[in-house]
Amino acid sequence: MWPSERTARFLLALLILAAPLGLGLRMLLAERLDGPRFPRPSATDFVLVTFGSWADPEEWPDGQAFRELARRGQRVGPLWATSDHAPAAAASLWTGRYPVAHGLRASGERLPAETWTLAAAARDAGTRTAAFLGANLVSDSGLAGFEQLVEDPGLGAEALGKMARRFLVEATDRRVLLWLHLEDAGAGGAEAERLLGELVAGLVESGREPDTLLFVTALQNRLDAADEGRLLVPFASYLPAALNAGRTSAAVLGHVDLAGLGVALLRLPRPSLARGEGALQSREQLLWSAMRGTSGPEWNWVEGSFGEVARLPEQRLHLAPDGSFRAERLPQPRALGDYSSVGGGALENARRTFAERRDQAAGRR
Fold first, then answer.
1. What is the pTM for the complete model shown?
2. Among 14-28, 67-81, 222-236, whose mean pLDDT is lowest?
3. What is the pLDDT of residue 43?
4. The CATH number of the domain where 222 resides is what?
5. Percent of the chain, pLDDT > 70?
6. Are 346 and 331 in contact (CB under 8 A)?
7. What is the domain range of residue 86?
8. I need a surface site. Which of 129, 221, 279, 281 has the fewest CB within 10 A?
């Protein structure tokens, strides 16, 4: 028997009134999901591709693999690497800490044996971890956590790509964390394009491509700057199911922010002070927001043969190797996309220095 018209109207009105109430309760009481999280972290793979040097941090290869990465992924920055000592910079990527905090700052130094790394946390959570590197970044730094490790300065893009492809196809029993490093991206990024193309083919062949977190960056640029300008590096990412596809951001962040983002996305335990593990210095929420398209400057700490530099949104603080100290104001951006102004002209100065030395070399010939 059908309800009367009056009853039906009453039930409809009750439904209309109850729906906003239920939504409001959900907003107030439910778990927040605006942070960097995925619904199926156990199925999410993590791949980091690094290059020892990159020509210009704002220029990308024009090959098919990088065009597809730009179309389906995100580009942020350029970002700041933490040090011009490659093992120290690599350590910051995996520990989420600046060199002054993780302790590796110069040649001959190594991380303490108990140092927390994203790779070790993933391994302890059951992830299969591997690093195939065209440089001695693990042996020279003491980075822990890689079950399978190949280091050979002679490894080129083709060999690295084939190793990665074989690993991805064969490691089908659990999720993976993979680090690939190529020393030189090549003229016009040709070697980088070759490596990325082989890697993507391996992800597709293994069926992992829809659920993979892919990050691409470098440890230095080749603009030959005398100051920290050489540490401005490219950063691109690709999220599962092409989430936030095509986003770009001029956010001024750093390599230390990646480890914290990996912890959040893979839902791994954070370092524990009770176990003697140093706290993360990552700003994963800011990096996640940048990957969704927000822009803006943040503070960063970099160091190297030029000394130690703290870059604040409006100020540059420089402690030189001779102990002298200098503070200077940085020009403010005319627009969010005006990165060279946000970066205080570091990238522009690096380009100018590179062009002058190139012209001088051409004149000598």
1. 0.84
2. 14-28
3. 75
4. 3.40.720.10
5. 79
6. no
7. 41-295
8. 279
